[in-house]
Amino acid sequence: MASILTHGIRNCPVNSAWVVKLAARSLTTTSHLQAQVQPKTKKTLAKPGVKNIVLVEGVRTPFLQSGTTYSDLMPHDLARAALQGLITKTGIPRTAVDYIVYGTVIQEVKTSNVAREAALGAGFSDRIPAHTVTMACISSNQAMTTAVGLIASGQCDTVVAGGVEFMSDVPIRHSRKMRKAMLSLNKAKTMGQKLALLGKIRPSYLAPELPAVAEFSTSETMGHSADRLAAAFGVSRWEQDEFALRSHTLAKKAEDAGLLSDVISFKVPGRETVSKDNGIRPSSIEQMSKLKPAFVKPHGTVTAANSSFLTDGASAVLIMSEEKALAMGYKPKAYLRDFVYVSQDPKDQLLLGPTYGTPKVLEKSGLTLADIDVFEFHEAFAGQIMANLKAMDSDWFAQTYMGRKSKVGAPSMEKFNTWGGSLSLGHPFGATGCRLVTTAAHRLMKEGGQYGLVAACAAGGQGHAMIVDVMQVQLTSPVESKHCEL
């Protein structure tokens, strides 16, 4: 398929000037960073007989590059901090929560159900059920929609969803042969049996199995897939670096303006208190252009500068039925409306989840691309984002691969990830989804929009898209943010 894509998409009718202008337009459009604006009401997405489900609040620990300040912790420590931060910020009694669900990707074997361990550590009752889900980079998206399902079905009124990833200490295994030898040795009953088994161990058995961000079905790393996707869609190295620079610059502006209000301060035991993401580093095209390709060498275009970095972090959101939120005096941030999950070829279309998910969720909600005021897309790689934008703006791709009569269109860059994205803020695999939804709600509130569209790709060739709606959210003010500590 890659050769077909290269032929059909490399010259697809996407306005090439937008790449040059996108940074300038977004960086000079600062009015959206100012005072909160009342939304202009469009149509309602409420459905008769269906519960309104609301996002009351969302928080996250600072997202830090792996191997830095969080390096001596464990995943449940970060998840616990996020849960405690949510409790502190909302003031919700722990006993009012009916269920807790968390997403994660690379599990720590000692705390395989990290939702349960984090909940107990955060002081929740042992009577509150908790479970962990995994769906690659959309794991916390799955956690949130699981919460929506629990509430919509009447099983719960109040659910905490979240996600966590800890890349500073990933599991490293012995080789399979060594594991089998060790298990057999453990079962041996006599010294003779043990010595015989030890004699069979060869030096090659001692080579460890290191984890890799690779597809099991294709054995290809996601970086290689991103490089091939960028090549197929004709996305240049310069375009990718320009987009990555845009992400870092906008993230820095948002941070300096105090707009990243979902970030909670976290006192790391034995170390300093952290209150900011540490991966936001605006550079220059000249500096970025000096980096060598990270995956396809020597001619690839994906580098460390235009890829999201390995990140430690956790997030948590409070999701409730609207009726329950009102009864408890909360001012919800947004309604969580329609959502879809999509899946496609994990080899040639691994990272095209947003392209497939966006038109489906728009059709499901009865909206068009023009109705959306805020776009929050996961930025795994700059090349991945730009390939999606080109695919979304291609009639040929829609007709050839999606069975659609016409393209859905590319989002306006003035509405797209204007507070930065995963390239700059960081991407703890299991935690990013909650950040996307919370940021979409905050941007809508700040800019006076009504509808936000969240979309993300994930390993396995999967994806997610959701509509966030802030219409008529006019209740009492939420509790002020406070610091939280372990």
From TrEMBL:
Keyword set, alphabetical order: Acetylation, Acyltransferase, Endoplasmic reticulum, Fatty acid metabolism, Lipid metabolism, Membrane, Mitochondrion, Mitochondrion inner membrane, Mitochondrion outer membrane, Transferase, Transit peptide
Residue span(s) of domain Thiolase N-terminal: 53-323
Gene Ontology biological process: fatty acid beta-oxidation
GO molecular-function terms, A-Z: acetyl-CoA C-acetyltransferase activity; acetyl-CoA C-myristoyltransferase activity
Catalytic activity: octanoyl-CoA + acetyl-CoA = 3-oxodecanoyl-CoA + CoA; decanoyl-CoA + acetyl-CoA = 3-oxododecanoyl-CoA + CoA; tetradecanoyl-CoA + acetyl-CoA = 3-oxohexadecanoyl-CoA + CoA; an acyl-CoA + acetyl-CoA = a 3-oxoacyl-CoA + CoA
Subcellular location, record wording: Endoplasmic reticulum; Mitochondrion inner membrane; Mitochondrion outer membrane
Enzyme type, top EC level: transferase
InterPro entries named in the record: Thiolase (IPR002155), Thiolase-like (IPR016039), Thiolase_acyl_enz_int_AS (IPR020615), Thiolase_AS (IPR020610), Thiolase_C (IPR020617), Thiolase_CS (IPR020613), Thiolase_N (IPR020616)
PANTHER family: ACETYL-COA C-ACYLTRANSFERASE, TRIFUNCTIONAL ENZYME SUBUNIT BETA, MITOCHONDRIAL
Annotated family: Belongs to the thiolase-like superfamily. Thiolase family.
Function: Mitochondrial trifunctional enzyme catalyzes the last three of the four reactions of the mitochondrial beta-oxidation pathway. The mitochondrial beta-oxidation pathway is the major energy-producing process in tissues and is performed through four consecutive reactions breaking down fatty acids into acetyl-CoA. Among the enzymes involved in this pathway, the trifunctional enzyme exhibits specificity for long-chain fatty acids.
Quaternary context: Heterotetramer of 2 alpha/HADHA and 2 beta/HADHB subunits; forms the mitochondrial trifunctional enzyme. Also purified as higher order heterooligomers including a 4 alpha/HADHA and 4 beta/HADHB heterooligomer which physiological significance remains unclear. The mitochondrial trifunctional enzyme interacts with MTLN. Interacts with RSAD2/viperin.
NCBIfam families (UniProt xref): AcCoA-C-Actrans (TIGR01930)
Protein name: Trifunctional enzyme subunit beta, mitochondrial
Organism per entry: Lepisosteus oculatus (Spotted gar)
Classification of source organism: Eukaryota, Metazoa, Chordata, Craniata, Vertebrata
